[in-house]
Automatic annotation (TrEMBL):
Protein name per its UniProtKB record: Aldehyde dehydrogenase
Cited Pfam families: Aldedh
GO MF annotation terms: aldehyde dehydrogenase (NAD+) activity
Signal peptide: none
Native source organism of the sequence: Medicago truncatula
Organism lineage string: Eukaryota, Viridiplantae, Streptophyta, Embryophyta, Tracheophyta
CC terms in the record's Gene Ontology section: cytoplasm
Catalytic-site annotation from UniProt: 215, 250
Homology family: Belongs to the aldehyde dehydrogenase family.
Alphabetized UniProt keyword annotations: NAD, Oxidoreductase
Amino acid sequence: MNNNIGVEVEETVRDLRQYFKTGKTRSVTWRKNQLKALLNLIHENEDAISKALYQDLGKHPVEAYRDEIGGVEKSAQNSLDCVEKWMAPKKSNIPLVFFPAKGELLPEPLGVVLIFSSWNFPIMMALDPIIGAISAGNVVVIKPSEQAPACSSFLANILPHYLDPNAIKVIEGGGDVCEQVLLQKWDKIFFTGSPRVASIVMSSAARNLTPVTLELGGKCPAIFDYPSDFKMAVKRIVGAKWGVCSGQACIAIDYLLVEEKYSSELIELLKKFMRKFYGDNMMESKALSRIINKHHFERLCNLLKDPLVAASIVHGGSVDETNLFIEPTILLDPPLDAEIMTEEIFGPLLPVITVNKIQESIEFINSRPKPLAIYAFTKDATFKKKIVSETSSGSVTFNDTLVQFLCDTLPFGGVGQSGFGRYHGKYSFDTFSHEKAVLHRHLCLEIEPRYPPWSKFKLEFLRLAYRLNYFGLVLHMVLHMLGLKRHN
C-alpha cells in the first residue's frame, strides 16, 4: 500500500461491492469453483505454508499440518460437499389459519465481509472463515495479522492466483491500515484476537450497525478429577498445553484444578510426559513453537517476575531471549490475585490450583469471566451434569482437550468476554448468511375478521386465532364465509 492508505481501502471496498451486485458470487458454480481452488492451493503449497509457519512461529511441519493445513483442507472439502444443500431453500410449516399458504427460509449472502485473522494460527484463522464466507456467496477482504509477516505475505501473494481476485482481496499492514479498514461500511465483520482490539472493532462496527462475530479467548480451565485412567488424561493435558503453539492458543488450558492430595502425583506425571514429548533438554526441543515476538516474550517473562509467582515454580522457568523461547513451566498454587491468574496467559506456563474437593472447582470457575472452553477429566456422571448446568462457557469437553475445535458438526464460539457468534461447518455458512423468511399466500380466501368495522364476533374470532388450534379456527372461518353461520 502507498501513503494514501484510506483511498486504496475505499476503492477496494467499492470495487468489491460493485462485483457483489453483479450476482456472480451467488451461484452454486462460483462457490464450488472457489472451494475447489482453495483445495488446490492447499495441496500445491503445503511446503510453502509450512515454511511460512516455521518462520513466524517455529512450528514443526507436523504441527503445522495437524493444526492448520489439515484443518483447512477438511473444512474446504466439507463445505464443497455440502454447500448446495446448505444454500437450498427450506420449507417452513405455516399455521392453518393462513391457509392456503406456504413458507420457506432462503439463505442469502450478507455482502461485503471483513475478516481479521490472528497471528497464532495465521493460516487456519484466515482461510477457515473465508471458506464460510465463500460458501455463503459473499465477497471478502481478509486482513492478516502483521505479527505473522511471513504468513501474511504468503496469503497476499498466493490467494489472487487461486481465488477470484474480484471477490477475495487481501489487505496487509499494521495499525494504520486497520484504522482505515474500520472506517469503511461492511456487511459483516469477523474478528479473531484479543478483547482489547475487539472492543475497538465493535465500536467501529456500531457506527454502521454492522453485525460482528468475535472469537476471543479467556482463561480456559481444566478440571482433573483423577480418573482411573489418569495417565491418558495427563498425556492429553501435556499435549494440549505445550504441543499446540506452546500454549499460544485461545482454547489452550490456562490453569489446572486438582484436589490437593493428588497434586504431587499429578505434577510428577506432567513432568514425565513432558520429557517423553519434548526430551530431557526442552530448551532444545524441535517440537515446541517459539513465542511470536519480543513483546509477547517480555509479557510472559513479566508474569514470572513477581517473587511469589516465581516461588511457586515447580518445573521449568528457563528463557532464551535470543530465540524467543520459554521452557514449559509448571507453577503450584501461585497467588490468585497475581497477573498470571487474572489475565489470559497465552503461553507455555501452567498454574496448578489445588482445592479441597474437586466439586469446589465449579465455584472457582464461576468466580472468573466466562471462558471459551472448559475441559474436565472425570467419569462421574453426576459431576459432569453439574459442570454443564452450573457453569457457562463457549464449550465443554470431557476427557479430552482442543478436539472440539476440529469437530465441524459442533459450533465453535464463545460467550461473554470470550466472544460471541459461532462458526465451523454449517455454522460458518450460517454466520455469513441471512436466512430470509418468505411467505406465499393466495388471494382466493380472506380472513375477514382482521378488518373493520369491528364487532363482538370479530373480537372472539381473534381471541380464538391466538389461543386455540388452527384447524378448528379455519373451519370456523370457512363456514362463516360460506354463510352457514350467522353472527351480528
